[in-house]
Amino acid sequence: MISTFAQHELKAFWRSKNTGKTIAIRIVMAILVLYLLLNILVVAFYMDKILDKVLPDEDLIPAFCGIILYYYLFDLLMRLQLQELPTLRVQPYLTLPIKRNTLVGYLSFTAILSVFNLWPLILFTPFTFKIIAHENGAGVATVFMLGIIGLTIFNNYLALYIKRKSNLNGWVFLVAAAVLILAGIGDFSWHLYSISKASGFLFGHLIAQPVWVLLPLLLGGVMYYFNFLYLKDNLYLEELGSRKASAYKSSTEIPLLGYFGHIGDLAANEIKLILRNKRPRSSLVVSLLFMFYGIIFYANPHYQNMPGIKLLPALLMTGIFIISYGQYMFSWQASHFDGILVSKVDFKDFLRAKYLLFSLVSTIVFILTIPYVYYGWHILLVQFAMFLWNLGINATIVLFFANRNYKRIDLSKGASFNWEGVGATQLLLSFPLMIGPYLIYWPFSLLGHADIAFIALGIIGLLFIATRSYWVKLLEKDFMTKRYTIAEGFRNK
């Protein structure tokens, strides 16, 4: 039956009207993957020399064991962002005399066929059989690689389980990403524990007592079983739909946005769109990751006497969501844009909802980045000035350019290596967003009044926020002259 499923998928691929485009994309992707694998292979063969230089005071095998869990934490984070879910058009098979276990088994089996599962094998195998086998024998090296395979299977199915759960509740994805990030911070910044010591303990015991290999193999098997059960329970569309309906409340029941009436409802629907779809959700994840961008600049003594350089991290941390999500503002609704044009929704309310969404996310990020005041109260002034600048000016610029983006985005597609909707508009947009603050800052800075420059940036942003109704009217007027061109562009698949 598995061969039958594979034949059906091949026929569906070759009979698709987009076969040529898909083949071209896959060829490019295959070249990129091959290049990455070759780089990993080079690192793998020189792993012993790299470890000897990086950790000269430690023995090779304990040093190697100490980095393995770091790899798998990073691997899980990358899988959550880039690994695609294996799919099969199961609807036609549900009415046929085919066992549900067979369908689910096929989906579970194809999940193993991921390039992510090759990386640890290529990275760890040369060191294992060159160093560990030499010191402890080929049998121990083989058992060690079985442990690597077990953790790889565990990571593979854990990532898929989280991604499938997040399709029903987008907060699952954000919580999982936050846990991984906090795990790294707890080790490197707060020093609450040592992942390296835990990794060394686990794999050191695996070498000394090979029976420990049962632990990673058991973890992999348990995660496969959970993933299998979840797919089996949600195989029927009506079951999945009923759970999805119960997992989400209506937009009017979101307490914070309920105070904004109809505009709050539109913003709530936008938030649901972000949490339920991979590519817009990646914009939210990027904005959370960029909160750590300030460490590069604020904690570096070299930049302490360069106040102008601090504009960049402050701009990106408080405004990266506006930039990354806002530049495709109407493209996210491309599939139902015609419905928006004929609906009773006032486009002014539509724009105000966008502003509300920007304000909500940027305010949360600004509050979360307040602890950077640890590096000086001056940081708070820069952060607040760019926070106002982003909400006042950059949000308006982004919506202005959104009226000139006619490329649709298919929300059903993944976020990894997806350049759909990207065009010259996005390149042009980066210039006013990045250069604008410096055009205000530099004249004051040359006169030796950097603090006044930051205050001026904040005041200008505040003036734009105060006059937002005026800018909404201009944006609406601009949209009305381009709405049919935008709609026509969104219809081109």
TrEMBL record:
Highest taxon listed in the record's lineage: Bacteria
Q: Where are the transmembrane segments?
A: 23-47, 59-82, 103-125, 137-158, 170-190, 202-226, 282-299, 311-334, 355-374, 380-402, 422-440, 452-471
Q: Which UniProt keywords apply?
A: Membrane, Transmembrane, Transmembrane helix
Q: Which InterPro entries match?
A: DUF5687
According to UniProt, the name of this protein is DUF5687 family protein
